[in-house]
Amino acid sequence: MNDLEKLRNLLLKEEQESLSKLEEELNNLKKDLKNPEVIVEKISPLIFSILEKSYTKDKKLLVDVLSPIVLELIDRNYDESKDKVTKQLAPLISIAIKEQIKSHKDEVVDALYPVIGNMITRYVTKTFEDMINSINLQIRNGLTFKTLKRKIKAKYHGISETELLLKENALTNIRAVFFIHKETGIVLSHKEHEDNKINEPEMIASMLTAIRSFVNDWVDKNEKHQEINTIEYGGSKIVLESSGYSYLAVIIDGAVTNNTINSIRKVLSILVSTYSNEIKNFNGDMQNIPKEEFYEIISQLISKNSEKDSKKIHPLLYLFPILFISYISYIVYNNIIDSKLEKKANDILYKDSALTIYRLDVEVKNKNMKINGVVPFSFYKDLAYNNLKEIKEIVSLENNIQVIDSFNNPKDIYDKITYLTLALNIKEGNGIEYSYDYPNAKIFGKVFSKKEKKYVQEQFSLIKGLQNIEFSVEVIPPSIDDIIYFEQNSSQILPNQEYKLINIINLLHKLDEDLTLEIQGFRDYTGTIERNAILVKERAENIMKYLKLKGNVSQKLINVGINDIPKNIDEQNYPEQGRRVIFTWKK
């Protein structure tokens, strides 16, 4: 540092320090300008001071300046969060209305008078219109079950149907009762129906007090000097019964009957006569009134209403007629189905000629079928069962047919013989006949086997009432009419002839084993006698082998080779008919 600088520092020391300090403050100020919170903190006292002075000097000017800003802020906040604003203002509005009614009752009356006056007139008119429309609608319903019931009920009670309709439309249901002090509008006691709880009874009482006041003022202005008795709100009515210092407000669903009004007046009379001094001297302190006694007295109205409700028919009781009708319908439907099945079954039995004579009866219940009746033989019992078991609609089939032999009169015995003979002759090979001279019968004819003859004798022996039965039935095997043909100069069995042999085998299995079957072979017009003799014998032997080996028949077979031409054949047109084998029983 030179001398000049030293001299400058000595001379300008104070100025330099001031300059440095000023520079430091300037830097701090720059930092504060960048921080809005610091600026607000610094300026706020000044703004409040300015607003205070401006409000004192010129209030109107300040309002004009700030109003647009404040309104814009409110609108913006409301648009952004309507629900939040509503929730914040709702409690304040309720409190404000309540306080306004308490402190400035007349102003509230004047404000609501134009609206409430028209509302009361409209509701009174609408009440009568609704009642008239309800009655007209019920009359127009004509001859319904409900109408007939009402007519009978009116006759029973000795009143007109119109009076009964009015009574039906006058059902009363008390929902809540308020005992309110006139001067203060405070609820001295209240009682609600258990299904209709009220959260703010004081608020309702205040509103009712205000409504009562301005409605009465409206009535006075219309030169009708009487207090309001009823207010309609929606589908309910609020009945106001007043005394000197208090009144009852009763919320009712339905019509307000004379009995209901009398009950309300009776309760109010008890309250006033018993606690007149407490009500008169009430100053707003709830500790000075008998709240429990008030509650007990006004509860009578709700209790009476509950008793009426308890006397009503329980809704479930209406289900019994429906269930009864459904049950009857079900039974009728089942009976129709069962009747159709019975008719169908009886038709099937009647169309069977073997069962027509017997009195068989079919009973059907819930698709369960029973066959009842009496037959002389188990054959008919089984026949009836087999005929009816094919009916698909039935659930079960019970065969109660009794096999008894109690038909001892000549006509019944004759019928039994006749129908048994018809049944036995159904089998191929049987030809049974009878003669009947009560009490004796002769059975004759033929059967196809000894076993069948024994069975026939057993069946006729089951007929009760016959003293003597003569059996002259012969065992005659049925003739075999099938003819086996062969090719010319051949003894081989043709494939188209085998079905005939199968039929013969089936028949032989049903016949007695001690029978003898002769197999006879014939020739045609061609060939030498010697050659035909060989062919005839071979053809009969091949037939015998087929019956024994493939058919396993037990009867005795005899080869009868007849080297001759059959009689009654057409030599020119059907020469092959001579090359045949036929079957006959040996006697």
From TrEMBL:
Ranges in coiled-coil conformation: 12-39
InterPro entries documented for this protein: OmpA-like, OmpA-like_sf
Keyword presence, Disulfide bond: no
Residue stretches spanning the membrane: 316-333
Domain spans labelled OmpA-like: 473-587
Keywords noted in UniProt: Coiled coil, Lipoprotein, Membrane, Transmembrane, Transmembrane helix
Keyword Transmembrane: yes
Signal peptide from the UniProt entry: none
Any GO CC annotation of this UniProt entry: membrane
One Pfam short name: OmpA
Name of the protein described by the UniProt record: OmpA domain lipoprotein
